[in-house]
Design brief:
- InterPro entries: AAA+_ATPase, AAA_N_dom, At3g28540-like_C, ATPase_AAA_core, ATPase_AAA_CS, Mitochondrial_chaperone_BCS1, P-loop_NTPase.
- Its cofactor is Mg(2+).
- It holds the Pfam family AAA_lid_At3g28540.
- Keywords: ATP-binding, Hydrolase, Magnesium, Nucleotide-binding.
- By secondary structure, the protein is an alpha/beta fold.
- The protein folds into three domains: 121 residues, no CATH class; 192 residues, Rossmann fold, CATH 3.40.50.300; 83 residues, no CATH class.
- Helix content is 47%, strand content 18%.
- The strands form four sheets. Strands 10-9-12-13-14-11-15 form a seven-stranded mixed β-sheet, covered by helices on one side. Strands 1-8-7-6 form a four-stranded antiparallel β-sheet, with helices on one face. Strands 2-3 form a two-stranded antiparallel sheet.
- α9 links the parallel β12 and β13.
- It starts with a helix and ends with a helix.
Length: 466
């Protein structure tokens, strides 16, 4: 025992050895820092830390950011939708709740994923932990959201192969059967889309359009919804474009609502006149989600999509100078690049709708085949549309004044909006129908007066030329 005790080094010897090793380490580190370039040192250090953490840590974390390159990350969206189904009955300490349904304040609020709160899930016996993180810059110039999905390291491949498709399919099923639709508008100050519940009740059943147009639209939309394999096979982006044109008040907005309700798509309503330039437009449009409608109303008033007027050389010079002084907004080429250019492939199952009151003012490039798949004329009332409106608003199939009113519809131009306004003037059926008849008779008188004035003007012009 005594001999064993004598073999134990003294404290002074241990201290001397420690001092020598520390000095040697310091010398080696200085040599390493002097000889090895900084980039190589950082690389070696990172590899060492990775090796250290992989050896001692048993967990693996997937990071799912809200943005993927320029586009929204569909995996992030799917995770957000899927996790809301895991919240009821969850043992988590917090749940995000809220509602923007102003028509029913007492309705049960929706559930959302709170930030920095662990949500536990299980997949085929594998324990999983989700956490939503949020980072915002000090000057509020950008924000970043991302999920952490943590599992045991040995299940990494299985989670990637089986669990990701599982929650993506679950989310897609939920979105296809969602009850609430939303309409989004772009907030230029916040640089983000702001949403509100879309509670427009117009459907193809209530829309006052000709049966042929109704059948065409429904068949086209249903074919588009089932066309994923077709678009992939022919090498085209899975999107559809509609140009709605016609006089104001002929139901263009109602047609958009009917399409959204039929397809169960959210609407992104873009006021294109407020967009600064093509770069901002690209960011705005790539932030929209799949299974949605991009609506650009009054396209003839935005970008440079309308015919440019003839200008003199002096005016051209002034325009070029003004171009440098002020922001002229987006270009037609920038818009078309998203409609059918390379950027149109950023997303799928999207419908793009342009509306205009003046199709003749649009640049021919916008009307070229392939840009807008269908050009739909939303015209003045026909006898069929008129009767449809009367049935809906007054709930009657016949009236003694129907015949004279239908004859007047063929003689004067009256919009569905004007007819609806007259039918809503009174709850008394006779008063409402008489008011509509009087309104249309006045329109006929004004039309005849305008025709006489135009004829007199033409006669005077002819006499002046003679």
């Amino acid at each position: 025992m005594a001999s064993l005790f004598n073999q134990v080094p003294s404290v002074s010897a241990v201290f001397a050895l420690y001092t020598s090793l520390s000095a040697l380490t310091l010398v080696l580190r200085n040599i390493f820092n002097e000889i090895v370039p900084k980039k190589l040192r950082d690389y070696v250090t990172a590899k060492f830390l990775d090796l250290f953490s992989s050896y001692f840590q048993s967990n693996f974390t997937f990071v799912i950011e809200q943005k993927w390159d320029y586009c929204g990350n569909t995996t992030f969206t799917a995770a957000n939708v899927y996790l809301t189904t895991r919240l009821p009955g969850s043992s988590t300490g917090k749940i995000l709740v809220g509602s923007n349904d102003l028509k029913n304040p007492a309705a049960e609020p929706n559930l959302g994923v709170p930030v920095n709160t662990k949500i536990v899930d299980e997949f085929e016996g594998i324990h999983l932990e989700w956490t939503l993180h949020y980072v915002e810059s000090k000057n509020n110039s950008y924000e970043k959201k991302y999920f952490h999905l943590t599992c045991k390291k040995e299940f990494r491949e299985k989670i990637m192969k089986d669990y990701f498709p599982h929650f993506a399919k679950s989310a897609a099923k939920i979105m296809r059967h969602r009850q609430d639709l939303y309409i989004y508008t772009y907030d230029r100050e916040e640089l983000s889309w702001e949403s509100a519940i879309f509670d427009h009740h117009t459907t193809f059943e209530t829309l006052a359009i000709e049966p042929e147009l109704k059948t065409t639209m429904i068949e086209d939309l249903d074919s588009f919804a089932k066309g994923k394999d077709f678009f992939k096979r022919v090498g085209r982006a899975w999107k559809r474009g509609y140009l709605l044109y016609g006089p104001p008040g002929t139901g263009k907005s109602s047609m958009v609502a009917a399409i959204a309700n039929h397809m169960k798509y959210n609407i992104y309503d873009l006021q294109i006149q407020s967009v600064r330039d093509d770069g901002e437009l690209r960011k705005i449009l790539t932030a929209t989600k799949n299974r949605s409608i991009l609506l650009i109303e009054d396209i003839d008033c935005g970008a440079d999509s309308s015919h440019r007027r003839e200008t003199s050389k002096e005016e051209d010079v002034k325009l070029q100078k003004n171009k440098k002084k002020r922001d002229l907004g987006i270009s037609l080429s920038g818009l078309l690049n998203f409609v059918d250019g390379l950027w149109s492939s950023c997303g799928e199952e999207r419908i793009i709708i342009f509306t205009t009151n003046h199709k003749e003012k649009l640049d021919p490039a916008l009307l070229r085949p392939g840009r807008m798949d269908l050009h739909i004329l939303m015209d003045y009332c026909t006898p069929f549309a008129l009767k449809k409106l009367v049935v809906m608003y007054l709930e009657i199939d016949d009236h003694v004044l129907f015949d004279p009113i239908e004859k007047l519809v063929l003689e004067v131009s009256v919009t569905p909006a004007e007819v609806a306004q007259q039918l809503m003037a009174s709850k008394n059926i006779d008063i409402a129908v008489n008011g509509l008849l009087e309104f249309m008779e006045n329109k006929k008188v004004k039309k005849e007066e305008n025709t006489k004035v135009e004829e007199k003007g033409e006669i005077k012009d002819a006499e002046t030329k003679e």
